[in-house]
């Protein structure tokens, strides 16, 4: 392995797809800045990543809070670190009908899935523009392609991430900075547990869940190729193609049937 002497900044790096991406970057010789809320999880994962012979910096931040996003990048600049690659992986959802779910939690989710992502990406771009290089990987989702009853706020945030990623990619096309969106489908991570979604029909057959390792590989390869986006998995590519052929109301009905609780008729 050849050391790249370049840092990758990864949010949500201690579990799921973010963890698998961090491992891929470490194996490829990139130094890491890993971000999560839990100090212990960060330190444990850092020790694991350092076994690949790379530097790992742990930064504990609560990305639900915009001020902590700004302070994250300030700490990097104060220490003379300009990441070459940014991976916006951290994200959450909440399950249930919109009229029943907790608005405070949903505002937190919008802050995490959208606000923290646009702040961090803007700071990254302003840092990298004078250098003429940089790569951004944004975790969208197959959820970005259709309205999502029972998971409406999450689907809405991911639709924003995909549309916005494609827009800023076009703006940056002459700058040396690329923006790539990764669209996984249902993946075997702790996401559904955090979203209180374990009773959803979509989880009744765990064999339908993708492995986070496979999703991370798809995202890593697309990012390195400078692709605009990648839908991870053949089944998800087919689902996206079907969504493109239906009306929004039909897509919403189909998604609602897939995602509703098993107890719901």
From TrEMBL:
CDD domains: SDR_c. One of its GO terms (cellular component) is membrane. InterPro entries: NAD(P)-bd_dom_sf (IPR036291), SDR_fam (IPR002347). Pfam families: adh_short (PF00106). Keywords: Oxidoreductase. GO terms for molecular function: oxidoreductase activity. Gene3D superfamilies: NAD(P)-binding Rossmann-like Domain. Belongs to the short-chain dehydrogenases/reductases (SDR) family. This is Short-subunit dehydrogenase. It comes from Chryseobacterium defluvii. The lineage of its organism: Bacteria, Pseudomonadati, Bacteroidota, Flavobacteriia, Flavobacteriales.
